[in-house]
Amino acid sequence: MSSILKHSIICLSALYMLSIGLTAMAKKASPRTVKPAPTVATPAAAPKVPAQVDITDLKINGFLQTYYAWYEESNPDSYFEIKRVRLTLDGKIAQEVKSKLQIDAASSTNILLDAYISYQPCSFMNLKMGQFKMPFSEEQIGSSAKLDVFHRSEVTSKLSYNYDLGLMAEGKLLKKKIYYGAGVFNGTGRNKADNNDNKDVVGRVVLSPLAGSGSLLEGLSLGGAVQIGRQPQVGTDEGERNRYGGLLKYTYAGFKLQGEYIYQEKEQVDASKKFASGWYGLATYCVIPEMIAVVKFEMYDPNQAVDLDGSQIGSFGLNYFFNKIKIQATYRLKKRETDINPIKEFYLMTQINYGKK
Fold this sequence. Notes:
Porin, 16-stranded antiparallel beta barrel, globular, 54% strand, 357 residues, disordered N terminus
């Protein structure tokens, strides 16, 4: 049995048993009406019937992504590979309590993604504890199954974590015109133990002032995010690490425009600061109901004090959908500031979704 399959079976079995146990505990704790035992001729007490666990609210779903890649001036210059094999278990333990467990079986190590329990005490607040996506970058928060092009942007990949361990509150206010998310996290990333006594504080607010109005600007959203924390020494980095992000998003009919800017300042061992920043912008258009065309441009500068270390990337793509299958073609031009000509890349990916949400 392959290592990937072993990991998948072990993890899903453990996640399944955990959800069953939590469900049983919730059922046991909740009050219920017990029918009286039927009258019998003998004076012996009726035997106790063990509590049953309702597993109808447990759902398994996920997706598979496999692709072909071609690179100019590379050895090898082309190959086939599996990108993601996501398996997700969603559980509804009680009306207000839910859980989510997700793994990526395409990875031989570090396969755990989501692993959290959430509690919704009211309509405008949801509490999460465990490992989940931080409320910072729109692109990172979005599902990998719904990316418009093959890669996420360099700036969101380098200057924001997707998953981390922590506690968060989020929700929507004023008829979904305001989204808020705020939490406390280790600040070390996915499946990594905390390496210091400090915690990162992360907050995000997205305003959609005309949502539900039916006007031309109904799909306009403006957002801001912040992450503040301290990290131990890693090379020349030590001390405060603060990140700030901005979001502009607009959707109308079959058109979408989205962009983000992220800025990071990192304290150094000598008390100086290193600054990094970047942005991306993309536009999509629904050509026909089954096909979406994409254009994306991005820039990233890992250290503003150093010349010729940045990058520029342009991506052009088509996404075709039918049934539960997605076929995505992405042509990418990637240019480092030291390159004379951009490097050409091409990706052809097939994705299939399974299960029901």
